[in-house]
Design a protein that fits this description.
Keywords: Cell membrane, Membrane, Transmembrane, Transmembrane helix, Transport
Radius of gyration: 21 Å
Number of strands: 2
InterPro entries: MFS, MFS_trans_sf, MFS_Transporters
Order of helices and strands: HHHHHHHHHEHHHHHHHE
Distance between the termini: 28 Å
Organism: Streptomyces lavendulocolor
CATH topology of the largest domain: Growth Hormone, Chain: A
Largest sheet: 2 strands, antiparallel
Protein name: MFS transporter
Membrane topology: Multi-pass membrane protein
CATH architecture of the largest domain: Up-down Bundle
Length: about 425
């Protein structure tokens, strides 16, 4: 199908296109476990292991960066046909990371750094493995909707997990240890469920011309995607805006209650869960690259909106920032619904894994550097922060829009055995 309509989307068909019921349960369990611990890993290092906040933060950042080094190997593994096995391995690796975390003695930063590295490797490997699995089960615009559904489900699990963990934090260090143990069990359960799907890829039948506007299913060499990958580093800053930039601005510049930051984070999660699939379906009538460029424009508009909102100060600043955050979330949803979909549409079947791994490298790098960039720009004032982000994002959107695609050869189809 070249485009989707709301009437053509059925929950059962969406679950099937996303990998099937067992895989959907695995995603939900994995996301729930991740929500229990991932947002509070810094607190675990400080409260349970009694490490300094700077040492804990450096270890976590190092874990994310070093975890990116596993991506080339993950890409090659995927290109050998593995699908559910790689997804399960990413979950199992994170379970091992939790075991290392629980075994870390108080006051020892290096074992904590090792645990953060293993967790980081699993976290980095999962998105590419998941996208490759979905691309093997579904094709064309159905695949786009399935990727969107997976993101909505994951955000729902993350949100529920984070809420449960927040409610348990009153228990202090002991509660954090229990949450870590439950997270490890969740990862292990999710890995078993994902592995039970037994999905592989093998060469597919000739392409049917679906999604030709973005090269989906056509013949030709793999695109370099240099502009897309560079732009993606800037685009992913939007994922850290609700968690880092807005709390920083609201608390340190507008002197607003932390409740505003929490409300914006919850609203972001709810909007992603509710709108990720509908917006992806609605925009499926346009080329994926056009939609991705549009996402950059929407994000840039929201950054200019934050600039205007912060200038209000006083009692109006925080509500204005909260209102503009809705626009930012819409831009995030459009970006998330088109970026991975575009990469899977452009990637030739024999190198789908390596192409997704390159894309995940750019995503991981952007997520790693964005906290440092945001916190470095913020002290120089709203214009430096929001104006800088807006300019960089508009430049990235222009690069995405003007880059020329080279079409990809035939797709892969699902097989069994791993």
């Amino acid at each position: 199908m070249a485009t989707l309509t709301f009437s053509s989307i059925r929950p059962r068909a969406l679950v099937r296109a996303s990998g099937g019921p067992r895989y959907a349960v695995a995603l939900a369990v994995d996301a729930l476990g991740t929500g229990l611990l991932r947002p509070f890993l810094l607190l675990y290092g400080v409260m349970v292991l009694r490490l300094s906040a700077p040492a804990t933060g450096i270890a976590m950042t190092g874990g994310v960066v070093v975890g990116l080094l596993c991506m080339p190997a993950v890409g090659r593994w995927l290109d050998r046909g593995a699908r559910s096995t790689v997804v399960a391995a990413s979950m199992l690796v994170r379970a091992l990371g939790v075991v290392l975390l629980l075994a870390t003695p108080a006051g020892h930063v290096w074992p904590f750094a090792a645990a953060a590295l293993v967790l980081g490797a699993g976290n980095q490997a999962w998105p590419a493995a998941h996208a490759a699995l979905v691309a093997t089960v579904a094709h064309g615009r159905e695949r786009d909707a399935a990727l969107a559904a997976g993101r909505a489900l994951r955000n729902a699990g993350l949100g529920v997990g984070a809420l449960l963990a927040t409610a348990c934090l009153a228990g202090g260090a002991a509660a954090l240890q229990v949450l870590a143990a439950v997270t490890g069990l969740a990862y292990l359960t999710a890995a078993v469920l994902a592995r039970s799907v037994h999905l592989r890829a093998r060469p597919a039948a000739p392409p049917d011309g679906d999604g030709a506007k973005d090269g989906d299913g056509a013949g030709g060499p793999a695109p370099r995607m240099r502009a897309l990958l560079a732009a993606n580093v800037v685009y992913v800053f939007c994922l850290n805006v609700p968690e880092i930039a807005l709390p920083l601005v609201l608390v340190t510049q507008l002197h607003a209650s932390p409740v505003w930051s929490a409300a914006i984070f919850v609203a972001n999660t709810v909007l992603v869960v509710a709108l990720q699939v509908p917006l992806t379906v609605l925009l499926s009538r346009f080329a994926r690259r056009t939609v991705l460029a549009l996402a950059g424009v929407v994000l840039a508009v929201s950054y200019f909106g934050f600039l205007a909102a912060t200038s209000l100060g006083g009692g109006w600043g925080a509500p204005a920032v909260a209102a503009v955050s809705v626009v930012c979330t819409l831009g995030e949803i459009v970006y998330a619904g088109s970026a991975t979909a575009l990469v899977t549409a452009l990637a030739p079947a024999p190198v789908l894994g390596r192409t997704l791994a390159r894309f995940e490298l750019s995503t991981g790098f952007g997520l790693a550097v964005s906290p440092a960039a945001i916190t470095a720009l913020a002290p120089h004032g709203p214009t430096a922060l929001w104006g800088g982000l807006a300019a960089a994002t508009l430049l990235s959107a222009s690069a995405v829009a003007t880059e020329k695609d080279r079409p990809a050869p035939p797709k892969t189809r699902a097989g069994t055995g791993g």
